[in-house]
Design a protein that fits this description.
A hairpin with a 5-residue loop joins strand 9 (568-572) and strand 10. The two termini are 22 Å apart. The radius of gyration is 71 Å and the shape is flat. Strands 2-1-4-5-6-7 form a six-stranded antiparallel β-sheet. It has a six-stranded mixed β-sheet with strand order 8-12-13-3-14-15. A three-stranded antiparallel β-sheet has the order 9-10-11. Among the domains are: 2-151 and 612-685, Rossmann fold (3-Layer(aba) Sandwich); 294-419, Helix Hairpins. The chain has helices at residues 36-48, 55-58, 109-120, 132-137, 142-150, 153-164, 167-194, 197-293, 299-345, 359-458, 460-562, 594-615, 636-649; strands at residues 2-11, 14-20, 24-30, 65-74, 77-87, 91-100, 103-107, 139-140, 568-572, 578-582, 585-587, 624-628, 653-658, 669-676, 679-685. It is built from 13 helices and 15 strands. By secondary structure, the chain is of the alpha/beta class.
């Protein structure tokens, strides 16, 4: 694996910064706290995501979003992965993406980690665990390695087991012991289930005997049932014949009842028709009497007389209108003449010429108007006489018209009565025909009733015979039912015993299976205890022994390279803990100087890297190592040893974080990291 570049946006002290890396050795140089280690944390975050609680430490304070984009190369293939952080109530990871084979694929935190593990060829079981292989082969924070050296041996050996992948043997032993414990519990349960097998087999034998006895009883009862069924069928056959005859008797009785009903209905209808006929005869006589009382009227002559009378009335009314008109006109003229007289009598001057009106002139006008008044009064008197005569004549004509109209109404009534009389006579004839038909029908019904009564008399003995055969059928059915009850009792008893037998057989089968399984589980337990557990212990010892010899040799070689002090030697004990001997005396790590502790931790770190890479030969991070402050506490002479160390590591890409300026002359590339106003920036040189 080769890192090509990394871009940090709002990550710790970085706002937006891209750092490019080349093959060979690269130094991230800068003052303490300038932001060098942030780059290493960002590389690990881009590959594997963050652990719980690390988000607040990565996302820049005051920023709500941040991201890391890492470009790297494996063999000839280039990859890009980007992870994002977002702050809400707490800092969480957002969906990111990975680009491989030129295809961009978005994914969740777990999905991206799964893709990275596949690319790096790391074990899939690391998907939900810490990245121990990466931490102890590629990048180990400087305090983490010192911690494993100074911690208790149980923690250290457990950590190394996980890193080496040897903890699986311990897990297998633990699982095997749990399985053995479970096998023992199952054996105890199976032993309980297998108890009482002999008693159950004895019960099985007794149930079989009872079933054999019941089979004999069932056979005997079945034979008796067949005889009872034959007897029943015989009497049922006789009953069927009698039932047919009874059916015929029932049909005759039904017919007789129907004839009685029909006869009663016909008689009642005949009586009703007789009453209706009598009523119609009475109505015809009344209508005939009324027609005889009224003479025949000539409708045409009556209509002509009515028309002439109406015309004469109309003529008189026209004359009366003219007379009234003349009276009104004469009255108006009389009133006008009287008005003129009144005006002349009071007039002194002419209203037109304003001359004095003489009495003579007034007298002339007054005489003229008096004549007019007298003439009009005569006209009024004559016309009023004519009016009285005309009104009298008109009244006589109207009285005559009313008489004519009364005669017309009488004529109409005669016509209606004549029509009603004809209709009632027709109805009377119809009723007489219906009465004749009913008489014939009543005669036929009476004849049919006599024939039916005769046939019923002949069938009276059938009912007695039917009652006798019904008694025989009931007896045969009762006998058959008693035998069936007895047979069903035997069958139910047999079924009950068979169910108990089946239950016993199931229990016997279960107990036998339990005892067989008990035997098998005993063999499994014996094999696990005597073979498997010892085998796992031996395999683990063999693997750990091989790793120990390789690890110890590498540890001593790297320490000797870093510390050319013959008075200090190191080796690993059986728990992979460093043992330091100084001047022939064993001393604890905590009593070493800062440079000596760092040399011991760095030697352990490089040895661990090589052992794991050799053990896991297919991982794709063998050509990359990141050293975080590997010279902490080194003297000037010890710093010179780093040049030799870098030459012997023989990896394609080495990234070193250090604030020591002297190391700049040992590496191929230098990346300067500076911080100003809480913002880090990088500058590439070399």
């Amino acid at each position: 694996m080769k890192i090509i570049s990394i871009t940090l946006e709002n990550i710790r002290s970085y706002l937006n910064q891209t750092i490019e890396f080349s093959e060979g050795s690269t130094l991230l140089s800068g003052d303490i706290g300038s932001g060098k280690s942030t780059i290493l944390f960002a590389i690990e975050f881009a590959l594997f995501g963050m652990q719980r609680g690390e988000g607040d430490a990565l996302l820049r304070q005051g920023k709500h979003e941040g991201s890391v984009e890492l470009q790297f190369q494996i063999d000839e293939n280039q990859y890009t992965i980007k992870r994002k952080l977002k702050r809400s109530a707490s800092v969480s990871q957002e969906t990111g993406y990975i680009i491989k084979d030129g295809v961009k694929k978005e994914g969740s935190t777990i999905e991206l980690k799964s893709d990275v593990l596949e690319i790096l060829n790391y074990p899939k079981e690391l998907l939900t665990k810490k990245n121990l292989i990466y931490r102890y082969t590629v990048y180990t924070p400087q305090e983490a390695m010192k911690l494993i050296l100074l911690d208790n041996k149980e923690f250290r050996i457990d950590t190394l087991r996980k890193v080496f992948g040897v903890d699986k043997y311990k897990i297998m032993r633990a699982n095997a012991e749990l399985f053995i414990k479970e096998l023992r519990q199952q054996q105890r349960e199976l032993a309980v289930k297998g108890e009482g097998l002999g008693e159950k087999e004895k019960q099985q034998e007794n149930y079989l005997k009872e079933i054999s006895l019941l089979d004999e009883q069932i056979k005997h009862a079945s034979s008796k049932k067949e005889d009872a069924e034959a007897s029943l069928q015989k009497v049922l056959s006789l009953q069927k014949e009698i039932d047919e005859k009874i059916k015929q008797v029932a049909e005759l009785k039904n017919k007789q009842a129907s004839l009685d009903t029909a006869l009663k209905s016909s008689v009642e209808l005949f009586q009703s028709l007789t009453l209706q006929s009598k009523a119609l005869q009475d109505e015809c006589k009344q209508l005939d009497d009324q027609l005889k009382k009224h003479q025949e009227i000539d409708s045409a002559a009556l209509e002509k007389k009515k028309s002439l009378t109406q015309q004469e009335i109309q003529e008189n009314e026209r004359k009366l209108f003219s007379i009234v008109k003349n009276i009104n006109e004469a009255a108006v003229k009389k009133e006008q003449a009287q008005s003129i007289k009144n005006k002349i009598r009071q007039l002194d001057k002419c209203l037109t010429c304003l001359q004095q009106v003489s009495e003579n002139h007034k007298s002339i006008i007054m005489e003229r108007e008096d004549k007019q008044i007298s003439q009009q009064e005569k006209i009024i008197s004559e016309n009023k006489q004519l009016q009285l005569e005309n009104e009298k004549k008109t009244g006589s004509l109207k009285k005559l018209l009313l008489e004519i109209q009364d005669r017309e109404k009488a004529s109409e009534i005669n016509l209606i009565n004549k029509k009603n009389l004809e209709e009632k006579k027709q109805g009377l004839k119809k009723l007489e025909l219906e009465q004749d038909e009913l008489k014939k029908r009543i005669g036929l019904i009476n004849a049919d009733k006599a024939e039916t009564a005769k046939n019923l008399a002949l069938q009276s003995a059938i009912e007695n015979e039917h009652r006798e055969i019904r008694t025989k059928v009931d007896q045969a059915q009762h006998g058959k039912h008693s035998i069936e009850l007895q047979l069903n009792g035997f069958l139910k008893e047999k079924q009950g015993i068979q169910r108990m037998l089946e239950n016993v057989e199931d229990e016997i089968k279960l107990k036998k299976e339990s005892l067989e399984n008990l035997k098998k589980l005993g063999h499994y337990e014996e094999w696990l205890e005597t073979m498997f557990l010892n085998l796992m212990i031996e395999i683990e010892k063999h693997v750990m022994g091989k790793l120990y010899h390789e690890f110890n040799e590498l540890f001593q070689r790297w320490f000797k390279l870093l510390m050319e002090d013959e008075t200090i030697t190191v080796h690993l004990d059986g728990e992979f803990a460093p043992v330091i001997t100084q001047n022939g005396y064993e001393v604890g790590i905590e009593y070493l100087s800062g440079g000596e502790k760092t040399s011991c931790a760095l030697s352990y770190r490089l040895s661990l890297n090589q052992v794991i890479n050799d053990l896991l030969g297919t991982v794709k991070t063998k050509d990359l190592i990141i050293l975080d402050e590997p010279t902490d506490g080194f003297s000037t002479e010890q710093l010179d040893k780093i040049r030799d160390l870098l030459q012997q590591i023989q990896m394609k890409q080495i990234i070193i974080v250090s604030h020591e300026k002297k190391i700049e002359s040992f590496v191929d590339h230098v990346v300067q990291v500076r911080k100003q106003d809480h913002v880090s920036e990088v500058f590439v040189s070399g």
